[in-house]
């Protein structure tokens, strides 16, 4: 195109074409879905490979499962490190660079899980390999949330930050849905013995291959940091924590109730039903898949609603709802298919008040200079403390003979976040610095 044609269209000859918002949304969402497929496949398949990787305790069949969920929690404790390091890379080198690194790490970790040897064949090497794989994946997923949250919200048009924010959990849920659906399909096609011996490895190998697809799609993303931010001095690794301690603590309070409710309802509930109500393994995976599909459809609706009425009303509705209803809902779980489906879907409706707006609220708390690292570390630390430990805590309460305490634990954390949300200013109408 000639210079005259460029000028006729209102652009300078060498101007950079603005990024397509749809393309930006796809680059973040597809890659994020692949990341979370890899991450969540572990929790859905834990009941099948626990006995392969960990030895059974004397007369206690819960020991391998408890050990497997402990490794699940260990992976979460790498998330704050990933949030800090990858967040700093996103703030210093660009969001796109960080997103490329996170998906490479996740694919490598998934491949390592697929190749984990059995305890019978290699002894302690088996759990060591599994722990290393989860540490790598934890580093990746901690950085993924920081980078993709920032990238999504900065890519949004005026009055659309809530909608774009909701795709953080749309894509997360699609990845989780794919993991749940894959596990359910494998469980339907294979015998339980085949699933325990080799079927679970197929899902992780597929995740490693899908990571290459996500990497290819992300190559088309455009950087969202402004030219001024790119030209400015690069922030230090701990600058967000040092200069914005109040905002960092605020992220922790915003996240605490959301993460325990999220991981309980989307990840642990099928296992909770199996352990506490004798629910069938295959049926619990089917219920999880159906409820996750319902949950994904709710997210854009919640995001658009927050662009109209604000973030705060949705957050208050979510937290108060769970504080009041978590205990009765979890007590309604029986070995009946309809019971678990109803409980899981009811929780998904309440949970949308948090998940649809969490990315927007977090991004609106910090300035652009330290936004990714500022979100990444406190968010991932809180998720590690309360979200990643949810399956372990729930299983531990059961082993200790007090399964009824876990619902109260969920309700208590949601009440804490409700008090935090009461103090939040409404941020939906504020201009976002880029």
UniProtKB/TrEMBL annotation:
Its main location: membrane. InterPro entries: H+-coupled_symporters, MFS, MFS_dom, MFS_trans_sf, Sugar_transporter_CS. It holds the Pfam family MFS_1. It is found in: Cell membrane. It is a multi-pass membrane protein. The keyword Signal does not apply. Keywords: Cell membrane, Membrane, Symport, Transmembrane, Transmembrane helix, Transport. It comes from the Bacteria. The keyword Flavoprotein does not apply. Residues 24-429 form the Major facilitator superfamily (MFS) profile domain. The chain crosses the membrane at residues 62-86, 98-119, 125-153, 174-192, 198-217, 248-265, 285-302, 314-334, 340-361, 373-394, 406-424. Belongs to the major facilitator superfamily. Metabolite:H+ Symporter (MHS) family (TC 2.A.1.6) family. This is MFS transporter. It comes from Streptomyces caniferus.
């Amino acid at each position: 195109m000639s210079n005259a044609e460029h000028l006729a269209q209102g652009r300078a000859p060498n101007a950079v074409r603005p990024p397509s918002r749809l393309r930006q949304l796809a680059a973040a969402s597809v890659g994020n879905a692949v990341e979370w497929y890899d991450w969540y496949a572990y929790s859905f398949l834990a009941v099948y490979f626990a006995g392969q990787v960990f030895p059974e305790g004397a007369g206690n069949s819960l020991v391998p499962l408890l050990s497997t969920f402990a490794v699940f929690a260990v992976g979460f404790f790498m998330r704050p490190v990933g949030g800090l390091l990858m967040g700093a890379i996103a703030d210093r080198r660009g969001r796109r660079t960080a997103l490329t690194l996170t998906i490479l790490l996740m694919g490598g970790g998934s491949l390592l899980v697929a190749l984990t040897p059995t305890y019978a064949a290699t002894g302690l090497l088996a759990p060591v390999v599994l722990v290393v794989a989860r540490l790598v994946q934890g580093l990746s997923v901690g950085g993924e949330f920081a980078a993709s949250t920032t990238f999504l919200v900065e890519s949004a048009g005026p009055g659309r930050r809530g909608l774009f924010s909701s795709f953080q959990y749309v894509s997360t849920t699609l990845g989780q849905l794919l993991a749940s659906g894959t596990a359910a399909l494998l469980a339907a096609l294979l015998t339980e013995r085949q699933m325990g011996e080799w079927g679970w490895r197929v899902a992780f190998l597929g995740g490693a291959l899908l990571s290459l697809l996500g990497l290819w799609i992300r190559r088309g993303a455009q950087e969202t940091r402004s030219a001024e931010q790119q030209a400015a001095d690069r922030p230090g690794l701990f600058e967000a924590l040092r200069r914005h301690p109040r905002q960092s603590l605020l992220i922790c309070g915003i996240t605490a109730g959301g993460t325990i409710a999220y991981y309980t309802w989307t990840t642990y509930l099928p296992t909770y039903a199996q352990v506490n109500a004798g629910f069938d393994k295959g049926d619990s995976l089917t219920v999880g898949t159906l409820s996750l599909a319902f949950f994904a459809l709710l997210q854009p609706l919640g995001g658009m609603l927050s662009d109209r009425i604000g973030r705060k009303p949705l957050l208050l509705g979510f937290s108060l709802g769970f504080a009041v209803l978590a205990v009765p809902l979890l007590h309604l779980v029986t070995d009946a298919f309809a019971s678990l489906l109803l409980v899981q879907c009811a929780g998904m409706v309440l949970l949308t008040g948090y998940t649809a707006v969490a990315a927007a609220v977090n991004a609106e708390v910090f300035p652009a200079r330290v936004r990714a690292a500022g979100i990444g570390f406190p968010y991932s630390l809180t998720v590690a403390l309360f979200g990643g430990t949810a399956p372990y805590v729930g299983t531990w309460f059961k082993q200790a003979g007090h399964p009824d305490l876990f619902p109260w634990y969920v309700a208590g954390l949601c009440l804490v976040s409700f008090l935090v949300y009461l103090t939040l200013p409404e941020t939906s109408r504020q201009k976002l610095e880029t």
